[in-house]
Amino acid sequence: MTINRGRVRWQCRRALLELDLVFTRFLERHFDRLTDDQLADLDDLLRCDDYDIWAWVNGSKACENDRWKEMIGLLRQG
Amino acid sequence: MNVAKRTFDAVIVGAGGAGLRAALQLSEAGLKTAVLTKVFPTRSHTVAAQGGVAASLGNSTEDNWHWHMYDTVKGSDWLGDQDAIEFMCKKANEVVIELEHYGMPFDRTDNGKIYQRPFGGHSMNYGQAPVMRSCAAADRTGHAMLHALYQRNVRANTQFFVEWMALDLIRDADGDVLGVTAMEMETGEVSIFHAKATIFATGGAGRIYYSSTNAFINTGDGVGMAARAGIPLEDMEFWQFHPTGVAGAGVLITEGVRGEGGILRNAQGERFMERYAPNLKDLASRDVVSRAMTTEINEGRGCGPDKDHVLLDITHLAPDTIMKRLPGIREIAIQFAGVDPIKAPIPVVPTCHYQMGGIPTNYKGQVVVPKDGNPNSPVAGFYAAGECACASVHGANRLGTNSLLDLLVFGKSAGETVVEDFQSGQLKLKPLPADAADVSLARLARLDGQTNGESVFDVGLEMRRTMQKHAGVFRFDNLLKEGVQKIGEVAERAKRTQIADKSKVWNVARMEALELDNLIEVARATMVSAEARKESRGAHVRDDAPDTAENPNGRDDANWLKHTLWYSEGNRLDYKPVNLKPLSDDVEPIALAKRTY
């Protein structure tokens, strides 16, 4: 099943401003270059809780799911 | 164009705390209820509320609703309606205990009761001493609340339309509300949601400001829709600001940073708070600090190439202290200001946080407008709750932890009113006018057909900059007057927005253009209402309304103890009285007094 990039882009709108800002940077710099597999990982990550994603991105908590680590890395580096 | 029609007993727009609480009331009473939301419910901005929810449970210190009511009226700088405030404070215990029963994981005392903590502005015995009134679930109160309410709604079979954007309110020739038009983002198709009752719970519009703590979804969709449909907006000049948001980003830097010894500096490196508050300096109250920062920037002592911010300096603190006591802040500064606060100061500006005004309602959640000499005549079929609504319990300034309480109490109250009106047969499914979807279809056709138009981003940026400069935390007559002119020009540009991508499916650019239509209504309302109000009250502070014996804190009760009503059509203002009379005889009116802490 192909993932609609517009849908994933919209779902990068989050409940917390911190994440909106992180995702804005990510959308500008990385989003268009994501492979289908990476897009699937991102789609999966976006189902997580906002406070968890923020904790992984700001490094206060380690992400234990290997599948999400690459995306977290891209979100962190900006 | 053929527009699909769906029929419900009630349609609710917005699935944050207020929308979910209202939906629960309806679904549990057996009403066929649709909730439209542009993002998944648990990603609503209610999640960001950390402080807690106020209720005079008296678990940790003695407390009662009379004291809570007094604090709220005083906090509102007497602009709050005392009937609605009495209602909210009386209902607080009930709605918090209900949440507890829904499984909300509140912090507990040793004997198993809900633990309560103190919070600014909340007191015992009418301002005598701090009281412990805030019920919290760690620092995730809003998050826990939203999850508890969502689960409960799933159980009650509330029907969610997720990733649907409501476009316009549908009113008939009598002015009654018959539902909304909405767009399904997955298909781009427009549908009519025809209902006996329509409840708006769409949250605030903090994104009208350049510097805002609000998430990007806070675009005031319900407020904009109501304004376009001829509903006046109440008290839109009142916005709560926080002094230290990261410049250009808005993310909050907690007061704790100044508590640990952080110092605010201007472009000359001067610790300017020494001039404004010689004793408390950087630890003066929020409004004093915000005003001082704004004055420094306005007088040309701001920092950076645009001289548009000041600096929060903690470089003199030991790196150990920063790492140990302020780790989250260091991460925020690195992420959003690009500076390590151990080595360089953090650029900060006063930042918009909360919208006190909104769609005028009464304590029952009914939307009310002036009609036939009654300033508060209910609009049949239309209800609102939460930050998008103005009940008015926050008046000119909101107390912390009263926002989560507001959305619970008035979400539930709006729901109860709808259920009562439904069960008494008072709510009818009135026939849809033939042109019910025309306004929305015309807006979409205009957007798709626009040539030589304006960029949504550019117009949005101009709006945010104009609001920040001309209607910020500290207000000046000349800037406001220029602001009215400028925001009018921006609004004209907003009528000509153009998008490059016309695709129907998941078109984010189209969504952002539609959101701007809503934001611009709020921006106009704010600027025009603020320019007109020639006093200082609560969060609306004017340079030309100083503190005098006659007008303490610049507040002019003789002329301005009244609610503003702004109409989009004609950019027109009207006013209505503040209700200084409580709802019942259980309490005396809280008499006007100077607001001092």
TrEMBL record, chain A:
<keyword id="KW-0963">Cytoplasm</keyword>
<dbReference type="GO" id="GO:0005737">
    <property type="term" value="C:cytoplasm"/>
</dbReference>
<protein>
    <recommendedName>
        <fullName>FAD assembly factor SdhE</fullName>
    </recommendedName>
</protein>
<dbReference type="Pfam" id="PF03937">
    <property type="entry name" value="Sdh5"/>
</dbReference>
<dbReference type="InterPro" id="IPR005631">
    <property type="entry name" value="SDH"/>
</dbReference>
<comment type="similarity">
    <text>Belongs to the SdhE FAD assembly factor family.</text>
</comment>
<keyword id="KW-0143">Chaperone</keyword>
<dbReference type="InterPro" id="IPR036714">
    <property type="entry name" value="SDH_sf"/>
</dbReference>
<dbReference type="InterPro" id="IPR050531">
    <property type="entry name" value="SdhE_FAD_assembly_factor"/>
</dbReference>
<dbReference type="GO" id="GO:0006105">
    <property type="term" value="P:succinate metabolic process"/>
</dbReference>
TrEMBL record, chain B:
<keyword id="KW-0285">Flavoprotein</keyword>
<feature type="compositionally biased region" description="Basic and acidic residues">
    <location>
        <begin position="531"/>
        <end position="545"/>
    </location>
</feature>
<feature type="binding site">
    <location>
        <position position="254"/>
    </location>
    <ligand>
        <name>substrate</name>
    </ligand>
</feature>
<feature type="binding site">
    <location>
        <begin position="403"/>
        <end position="404"/>
    </location>
    <ligand>
        <name>FAD</name>
    </ligand>
</feature>
<keyword id="KW-0249">Electron transport</keyword>
<dbReference type="InterPro" id="IPR037099">
    <property type="entry name" value="Fum_R/Succ_DH_flav-like_C_sf"/>
</dbReference>
<comment type="similarity">
    <text>Belongs to the FAD-dependent oxidoreductase 2 family. FRD/SDH subfamily.</text>
</comment>
<feature type="region of interest" description="Disordered">
    <location>
        <begin position="531"/>
        <end position="556"/>
    </location>
</feature>
<feature type="binding site">
    <location>
        <position position="398"/>
    </location>
    <ligand>
        <name>substrate</name>
    </ligand>
</feature>
<dbReference type="GO" id="GO:0009061">
    <property type="term" value="P:anaerobic respiration"/>
</dbReference>
<dbReference type="InterPro" id="IPR011281">
    <property type="entry name" value="Succ_DH_flav_su_fwd"/>
</dbReference>
<keyword id="KW-0274">FAD</keyword>
<keyword id="KW-0813">Transport</keyword>
<dbReference type="GO" id="GO:0006099">
    <property type="term" value="P:tricarboxylic acid cycle"/>
</dbReference>
<dbReference type="InterPro" id="IPR015939">
    <property type="entry name" value="Fum_Rdtase/Succ_DH_flav-like_C"/>
</dbReference>
<keyword id="KW-0560">Oxidoreductase</keyword>
<feature type="active site" description="Proton acceptor">
    <location>
        <position position="286"/>
    </location>
</feature>
<feature type="domain" description="FAD-dependent oxidoreductase 2 FAD-binding">
    <location>
        <begin position="9"/>
        <end position="404"/>
    </location>
</feature>
<feature type="binding site">
    <location>
        <position position="387"/>
    </location>
    <ligand>
        <name>FAD</name>
    </ligand>
</feature>
<dbReference type="GO" id="GO:0005886">
    <property type="term" value="C:plasma membrane"/>
</dbReference>
<feature type="binding site">
    <location>
        <position position="353"/>
    </location>
    <ligand>
        <name>substrate</name>
    </ligand>
</feature>
<feature type="binding site">
    <location>
        <begin position="37"/>
        <end position="52"/>
    </location>
    <ligand>
        <name>FAD</name>
    </ligand>
</feature>
